[in-house]
From TrEMBL:
Residues 4-78 form the Peptidase M24 domain. It holds the Pfam family Peptidase_M24. It comes from Paractinoplanes ferrugineus. This is Peptidase M24 domain-containing protein. SUPFAM superfamilies: Creatinase/aminopeptidase. It comes from the Bacteria. The lineage of its organism: Bacteria, Bacillati, Actinomycetota, Actinomycetes, Micromonosporales. InterPro entries: Creatinase/aminopeptidase-like (IPR036005), Pept_M24 (IPR000994), Peptidase_M24B (IPR050659).
Amino acid sequence: MPSEEIDWVARQVIRDAGYGEYFIHRTGHGIGVTTHEPPYLVAGEKQPLVPGMCFSIEPGIYLPGRFGVRLEDIVTGTEDGGRRLNHTEHALAVVAQAVFGRVRS
């Protein structure tokens, strides 16, 4: 599968939820010797994702003046798709709102 297809799928989900204009960066990137390296999961990136590759999937939305959210999963390609390497929960917890470096309740 070309790298750009992951980006397309993530953008479609976010667009369908009404937040497309707030998704302003690539969906992810390869992980290897350095943290951010090809292939980049972005429109126009044709490099195929193949078994054994490790990459991040980290879509996010940013609503100006309100908040932003971005979750990052690390995935390795397998013969039948992919396998998540991090096993943390995806739970939303609002703990406080920071304004200019100060916490506001």
